[in-house]
Amino acid sequence: MTLDHWGEIKERLLKTVGQNNYTTWIEPLVPGAVEDGIVTLKVPTNFFGNYVSQNFSDLILHEINVTGTDATRLNFALNQQPPAAEKPAPAARQTSAAVKPAANSQLSTAPLDPRFSFDNFVVGKPNELAHAAARRVAEGGPVTFNPLFLYGGVGLGKTHLMHAIARELHERKPEMNVLYLSAEQFMYRFVQALRDRKMMDFKEIFRSVDVLMVDDVQFIAGKDSTQEEFFHTFNALVDQHKQIIISADRAPGEIKDLEDRVKSRLQCGLIVDLHPTDYELRLGILQSKVDVQRKTYPDLEVADGVLEFLAHRITSNVRVLEGALTRLFAFASLVGREIDMGLTQDCLADVLRASERKISVEEIQRKVSDHYNIRLSDMIGPKRLRSYARPRQVAMYLCKQMTSRSLPEIGRRFGGRDHTTVMHGVRRIEELKVSDGQIAEDLELLRRALES
Ligand code: ADP
Ligand code: MG
After folding, report:
1. Which of 355, 367, 443, 357 is nearest to 401 (CA)?
2. What is the pTM of this model?
3. What residues line ligand 1, using a CB cutoff of 6 Å?
């Protein structure tokens, strides 16, 4: 049995909960089956379901009963939307999809990539927090953390998540003014406004959005007047409780040449990072991309073990992984062969070779001394000052972790030190990694920089 009078029930709810709550929480509900007094309501996300259940279920139940359906309980179920490819992608039809065109005709933003939806985003341990946070802001509910700051290495899905948020908001809250742009575009607009003496317009446009998303914000580091303007825009929007979403390739505190006040502003919301992919996530992504390729090449088979092999071997970033797969399918269809290990080796020889790249001791030493702002010669040399010794130990530790060199070999490259000194250094860092958050963060950053 399905629920009768949903329209009437909604009208009654509108009167009791008010327009805002209604638009946010009631309108998106989709009535489902009624069985044994249990009414199923479909919701877009679990968070949404929980919220409605906690805040409005008594009211909803009451109105359902008043309109003639005997109901004792509500059941919230996820609304399974059809796969993205079958939905007309609104973003693909417009050039300035992220912005409601009528409200802001002067604003054209970067077009949203229709492939970058939540449906196409594969979630695993390394990105689950970022994904959950993105989902939350995409609901367009009351602003709970501002800004949402997403950071992580290249190709890990920051832009994908931001586009997904913009799309989702656009579909769910078409009345909202959502502006997505890269930090570079922000600067470009700003410079143009200065040149054309249109700063008032510029300010007005940016201060009238409901949601502002700025991608790759590290780009404005060192660009003083752009930073200044960004800071004011940011503050104006935060004061109006408008959601801001920022991405960068590293944490706010790690961005060089960013003013302290900008840093601290960026740090006051929720900061989540996308960790480098792990094997399971890479495999999951490959499987989902195979499904996409199948639409183009329905006859091509992928032999057992190929995806596992790729997930093992291509660890750098998702973009490379994706490119490899696209190439495999195109190649296989051209030569009319099955996608097996042989074809994979032939077709991806260069990619596989590149990902075999070994990290050298010298590279590690260079990165570490840069990171701690000390001279390479001081790090390798005999000085025992803590400010050299600690980075030295960090570098030794990374050499042990990331290269196949033995302890004596590592010692030799650190100014001819004994292998016991190296061992001591490695142990010390292992301890500090647990007890000292700063060291743990340094190691993570360095490892990432070295792997990219
Ligand atoms: P970033 O902006 O962090 O450099 P992108 O968002 O541009 O990275 O992602 C690079 C490519 O990898 C895109 O094509 C994106 O769709 C894909 N990608 C990244 N992470 C995922 C994921 N978890 N699931 C599916 N595709 C992903
Ligand atoms: Mg990006």
Report:
1. 443
2. 0.62
3. 116, 120-122, 127, 152, 154-160, 285, 318-319, 322
